[in-house]
Amino acid sequence: MNIRTRLTLRFILIAAIIMIMSSVLIYVFSADYREDDFYNRLHNKANNTAKLLIEVEGVDATLLRRIEQDNPVALPNEKIVIYNFRDSILFSTDEEHVLKINPEIINSVRLEEEIRYMQGDYEVLGFLFQGEFDRFVVMASATDIYGIKRLQNLLYILLFVFAISMVILSISGWLFAGQALQPIAKVVDQVSEISISSLNLRVDEGNGKDEIARLAMTFNRMLTRLEASFITQRNFIANASHELRTPLTVVTGQLEVTLLNTRSENEYKQTIQSVLDDIKSLNKLANKLLLLAQSSSEEREKRMQPLRIDELIWQVTDELQRHNAAFTINIDLDQNLDDENLLTVKGDEQLLKAALVNLIENGCKYSQNKTTNIFITASFNGLRIVFKDNGIGIPVDDLPNIFEPFYRGSNTSNIKGHGIGLSMVRGIVRLHRGVIEIESTEGSGTIITVILPVFEIADQSRKGTRRR
Predict the structure, then answer these.
(1) Over the stretch 383-393, which tens digit does the pLDDT of each residue have?
(2) Is residue 282 domain-shared with residue 316, that is, in the same domain?
(3) Residue 27: its pLDDT value, please?
């Protein structure tokens, strides 16, 4: 069942319930009014008859009966019976003894002063009439033929109006639902035209104020993100293919040239060494690409554990200096970080080491003195790690794109690299719910600041995220 049909049915259901409730109330109030009006007329008629019999001299039961027979205002099938204090009948127009009045009913009238009840088609009223010296029980009954017919007519009118209203509501509800859903149908039609080759298209946002407009704006923002992700992915694949193809082409070329002629042992060794270097470079690129993919994986977050960041930095420093003796790495640990918890973060050891290696190695590689200075301090939102070098710096025009995969600064053409490192580092820091900032002036060095939440803050943040 589509939304238009559901909306129409709900609209009809709500309207039907309201109309039924209204009709029932109208009928009930009308029935109550008819009953009260009829009993009032019956009471007035019976009370006037009792007054004539009891208070007017010269009027006896025989004369009163004759008057009642010729009374034009008598109610249909009217019966009036008056009892004295001994429960004897003083006056009665019920010659056929239609009313079944027993002593219990008379006693109820004396106790309650007025009673009402039905006897077949007759509506019976009993009340006390206060005479000058005594109280009399007056029993009156009649059939409200015209009132009942009017009530039945009202019922037929209500049923007819309800049936007609349901037809009108069905048609108007269907048209109203269609009109209400027209903007959504328009959005659906526009969305169906958007494909992977036309992600630049956007949905019409209408007046920009109502719920449909907000839906369109949300969808447009999603399209913008998808388009940016698709462009990034496409560029990534193109750049990765280029970076992988280059060393493979070099390796293939060297081997083909070597196979053209017989070479000396020394030449073969040189070729093999060159190919080995290219394969190592290729392997290093493949590892960075793998880490770049892992840095955006949420599954990695499940394997995080508490880690001492200072211990990781010392391990990375020892490893880098063991393979690159020219590197100088200075570590400055804030004395206020005397509490072990302030140096503990929740993270993935392999990814954090990869990020630290890249930041430290870049600082040393791009500095003439091959030196990187590391400052570890506490901040209000976690652990602050600052990497500072005195290298070539980053041009201002390159800073906005420096974290993009395979993007390299315009002044690094003479230095080996693939442009993956900083993109990978940013992904790893974000995976650890951290922040990375970069400041650089061309020719004056670069300062990269990484802020990671300490273990307790990170754990509470993840719990809060799951609660939300």
Answers:
(1) 899 999 988 88
(2) no
(3) 94
